[in-house]
Every structure is written in C-alpha cells, then in structure tokens.
Amino acid sequence: MVSSLILASGSKTRQALLKNAGLQFKAAPADVDERAIEEGLPTDERDPVSVAKHLALAKAIEVSRRNPGAYVIGCDQTMSLGDRIFHKASSREEARETLKTLRGKAHFLNSAVCLIRDGDLVWSEVSRACMQVREFSDAFLDDYLERNGDAVLSSVGCYQLEGEGIQLFDAIAGDYFTILGLPLLPLLAALRDYGINHA
C-alpha cells in the first residue's frame, strides 16, 4: 500500500510544481507562527540556512500530527544578504528600501525541503540560489514599483522572476525550482527512494 503524500503549504506555486511532476498529493497548509519560531531559535541557529530548515520542519511536523502515517513535505525559503534575513515588505516604501539594499549586490535564496512521517524526520535538503542584482537607476526603481503595484509585496525579494522582476538581475546561479521555493529534483529522488514516486 502506497502511503499518502501531503504538502504542508498553501503555496499555489509549490502545488503546481508537484502537480506538474505527476505526483498525487493533497495540500494542507501548516498553522505555525513563523516569526515566533525564528525568534525562539538559539542564536547560533539563526543563520539563513538554519532558519529555512527549522521553518520547513516545523510546518511538516505540525501537519504530520494531524495526518498519521502520511509522508508530509515541509518547505520554506529565506532570502539573505550576508547574515541578514529579509521578510516580505509591508508597503511599497519598504519594498523600495529592500530593492535599494539589494541593488548591485548578490543575495541568496535558501530553500529547505523535508519529509516527515509521524512526527519524525525522514529526509531533508537545503538548496541555494545566488541572485546578482544589477545597478539600476532610481528612476527605473520608481517606474518598476509603479508598474508592479502591490504585487511587489507578495514575495520577499519584491520580484517575480517570471515577470518584470527578471529586469532587476545581471546573473542568476542556481536551480530554477530552488528559486521558486521547492528544490524539486532532490525531493523527487527522495520520494522515489521511499516508494512514493514511481516515475
């Protein structure tokens, strides 16, 4: 008997990635306080990669408690510049400050994914993508924010690569799925190993 598979996320993008890969799963968003989890971590585990790992685990464990016997996929992504972890902007002015901070620098998207079953960690992975933002003018920034409106508030970096956000970059090094917040290739391999993905 094949165990059920659950994605502990309400993200339409992550759901589409799994669906397009041919997986049978259900989505069950986790009920966790991400900022409280982050603030409760020991100081030496508040780096961007560790935070992404802990958040992915917390989400999967919470959903696993409600779904005994199921394999639960937990995932989370942090965006970092050095040791600084960014969160979604709450206003266009805050988005402007985020993009000005990123301008001309390389930042990282740190995407963690794990498999939990009955509250126990079965497998985990963290994949990183390096995003080199170009030196753009203040005039371009103003126009970009005006054209994209509140859509810039929907992602932590204030950009969507599949849209005009691609204009912010000089170079990108990393896996496309990692950028979208779900390291899909290692996840698919793990699911094959556990007999959940029969591809």
From TrEMBL:
<comment type="function">
    <text>Nucleoside triphosphate pyrophosphatase. May have a dual role in cell division arrest and in preventing the incorporation of modified nucleotides into cellular nucleic acids.</text>
</comment>
<dbReference type="GO" id="GO:0047429">
    <property type="term" value="F:nucleoside triphosphate diphosphatase activity"/>
</dbReference>
<keyword id="KW-0546">Nucleotide metabolism</keyword>
<protein>
    <recommendedName>
        <fullName>Nucleoside triphosphate pyrophosphatase</fullName>
        <ecNumber>3.6.1.9</ecNumber>
    </recommendedName>
</protein>
<dbReference type="InterPro" id="IPR003697">
    <property type="entry name" value="Maf-like"/>
</dbReference>
<dbReference type="Pfam" id="PF02545">
    <property type="entry name" value="Maf"/>
</dbReference>
<comment type="similarity">
    <text>Belongs to the Maf family.</text>
</comment>
<dbReference type="GO" id="GO:0005737">
    <property type="term" value="C:cytoplasm"/>
</dbReference>
<feature type="active site" description="Proton acceptor">
    <location>
        <position position="76"/>
    </location>
</feature>
<dbReference type="InterPro" id="IPR029001">
    <property type="entry name" value="ITPase-like_fam"/>
</dbReference>
<keyword id="KW-0963">Cytoplasm</keyword>
<dbReference type="GO" id="GO:0009117">
    <property type="term" value="P:nucleotide metabolic process"/>
</dbReference>
<keyword id="KW-0378">Hydrolase</keyword>
